[in-house]
Design brief:
Elements: E1 12-16, H1 22-29, E2 35-40, H2 44-55, E3 64-65, E4 82-85, H3 108-118, E5 122-128, H4 136-145, E6 149-155, E7 168-174, H5 191-208, H6 228-237, H7 241-256
Helix pairs in contact: 1-7, 5-7
């Protein structure tokens, strides 16, 4: 007898500012089975990469909306269990002008309105370390005003064995309501003890396993690498899935223990 497809019974995810899907991959690595029902991604190369992965069977096919500002959030109202997003870091990054709310790339007000409309059970976000001193307080206050309990922390790629630090802020928020699939905020396929064990295992990679192998050096001349600039931009703005997995597990456990 053939296997029965239960994908329509999995918790649903709406991915904002998807990039290459690092956050959603992190959820999978953390043992959280889910179904991404839609992506929002404005960068043409990033969107094309998602389409290519869908065509190759590496991603489940899902629509891609190109402009977060015009997303018809009402279509997803009370149909999303987890809303994810690595919203633009430029307004907060120490590498930029740190214009905060004055930066035209500041998308949090739109995300806040989408959360208010959609009412997901959980929200899981990623941003740069500079967000702590600029903007994070407002994000947490906005989430709490909508009835969410919030946990956040700094996590680095080095913690999961990468040869670089890449420290990032992760934010996890949840409500006490049930989602579309009846998934409670304190539930997970791993269970709380399994999550803690997995978090220690992820963090242990940095000391018990060899570091990730470095990529070959790429010189300043044409070497045949197609779309080099676009790929570097995609990777530079992307999320390390293993770090996202660690953040999900640790913050999830923190909220579950409160």
């Amino acid at each position: 007898m053939s296997d029965v497809d239960h994908s329509d019974q999995l918790p649903t995810v709406l991915s904002l500012c998807t990039g290459y899907g690092g956050i959603e991959r992190g959820l999978s690595l953390a043992g959280f089975e889910h179904r991404t029902v839609a992506h929002v991604e404005i960068e043409a190369f990033a969107a094309a990469n998602l389409v290519a992965k869908m065509e190759e069977g590496q991603l489940v096919p899902a629509p891609i909306w190109t402009d977060l500002k015009t997303l018809p959030a009402h279509c997803f109202r009370e149909r999303i269990d987890v809303l994810t997003g690595g919203y633009p870091c430029q307004p907060f990054s120490a590498a930029g002008l740190r214009q905060g709310t004055e930066d035209p790339r500041h998308l949090w007000p739109y995300i806040y309105n989408h959360i208010r409309t959609i009412r997901p059970v959980r929200c899981f976000f990623e941003n740069v370390e500079g967000h702590i001193s600029l903007g994070l307080r407002e994000v947490i206050a906005d989430l709490e005003s909508l009835g969410y309990t919030v946990a956040w922390g700094i996590f680095s790629a080095a913690e999961v064995g990468a040869p670089h630090r890449r420290k990032r802020v992760y934010i996890l928020a949840h409500t006490d309501s049930l989602g579309l699939q009846g998934v409670r905020p304190d539930s997970n396929t791993q269970g709380r003890e399994g999550q803690v064990e997995r978090s220690f295992r992820l963090r242990g990679r940095a000391t018990t396993q060899h570091h990730w192998e470095a990529q070959p050096a790429v010189g300043r001349v044409v070497d045949g690498l197609e779309h080099r600039v676009d790929r570097l931009r995609l990777l530079g703005n992307g999320v390390v899935p293993q770090t996202a997995a660690l953040a999900w597990i640790v913050l999830h456990d923190q909220l579950a223990s409160e």
